Amino acid sequence: MIDGKTRVYGVLGDPIAHSLSPVMHNAGFAHIGYNGVLAAFCVQDIAKAVAGIRGLDLGGVSVTLPHKQAIMDHLDELDTMAQKIGAVNTVHNWHGRLKGYNSDWLGAIRALRETTAVQDKTVTVLGAGGAARAVGFGIQVEGGTLRICNRTRSTGQKLAAELESDFIPISEFDGDCDILINTTPVGMWPDIDQTPVEKRWLHPEMTVMDIVYNPLQTRLLAEAKAKGCSVVDGLAMFVYQGAFQFERWTGQAAPVEIMRAAVLEGLN
Ligand code: ATR
């Protein structure tokens, strides 16, 4: 029940109506009996939104597209990884000081770790956008050997140089890796018959992860399963990036299974 002591949180983005963060966090808050509520805010002016967090003394916010970079200039403190990645998806209001974190990389690593170790594995990341950047840093923190694989050579080479990793064009991908992670939107609804790499390059020793979670089973993951690969779907990364936010905000362990079930229901 919302009362005079309820701590209020938000998810900021544009568009935001389809965000699954409210159902996920509110299910978690309710499950542990935490007196908090999270609402979605469609935000155009991020500076004004951050002033709003301060003015209303909100507990924190989740940040999504297109504000993950721009919000950084308006916070009091940045976590080291958020600074390295150059993007913030989590803000915690700690007694009036706003600290920014990036939990996307943590979500990806925690999701992968359920299926495979990353240390000393060769990892190919498909894509060179913001998601690839966060996942790429995470792979390196975990001790994996990273290779960026992108459609546009210049963009891929730029990210690879920043991460001091190898680069290959997506057209030259030949399956030579232990772990393959798709961070491109290829295969996302409504283009569900698309896949970023040809099936012939998938092999049973490979772990294949897709950060797309709509649909949950992308064509890439369906083909990977058929080839005998281990697969990690995008829901795991989304839930684990949320679990970090939840734990930062509440100081309590996130009820991950409850949060996952809420997102699954929200997806259907
Ligand atoms: P985000 O920040 O969410 O990761 P982004 O910055 O738009 O998203 O990046 C999207 C990535 O997906 C890019 O690497 C893009 O490749 P290009 O650099 O060649 O544009 C990749 N991508 C998008 N559509 C693609 C497609 N149809 N085939 C291959 N790669 C695609």
- Largest sheet report: 6 strands, mixed
Q: If helices are DSSP runs of H or I spanning 4 or more residues, what is the number of helices?
A: 9
Classify the helix fraction into a percent range: 25-40%
Ligand roster: 2'-monophosphoadenosine-5'-diphosphate
Widest beta sheet: strand line-up: 2-1-3-5-6-4
Q: Any overview of this molecule?
A:
With 268 residues, the chain is an alpha/beta fold. It has helices at residues 21-32, 46-56, 80-85, 104-113, 130-141, 153-163, 219-226, 234-250, 256-267, and strands at residues 7-13, 36-42, 60-63, 77-78, 90-94, 97-101, 122-126, 145-150, 166-169, 179-182, 207-210, 230-232. The strands form two sheets. It has a six-stranded mixed β-sheet with strand order 2-1-3-5-6-4, sandwiched between helices. The protein has a six-stranded parallel β-sheet with strand order 9-8-7-10-11-12, with helices on both faces. Helix 1 (21-32) packs antiparallel against helix 9 (256-267) and helix 4 (104-113) crosses helix 5. The mean pLDDT is 97.
Lay out the secondary structure.
Layout: E1 7-13, H1 21-32, E2 36-42, H2 46-56, E3 60-63, E4 77-78, H3 80-85, E5 90-94, E6 97-101, H4 104-113, E7 122-126, H5 130-141, E8 145-150, H6 153-163, E9 166-169, E10 179-182, E11 207-210, H7 219-226, E12 230-232, H8 234-250, H9 256-267
Parallel strand pairs: 1-2, 1-3, 4-6, 7-8, 7-10, 8-9, 10-11, 11-12
Antiparallel strand pairs: 3-5, 5-6
This protein binds 2'-monophosphoadenosine-5'-diphosphate.
2'-monophosphoadenosine-5'-diphosphate (ATR) binds at residues 127-132, 150-152, 155, 170, 183-186, 196.
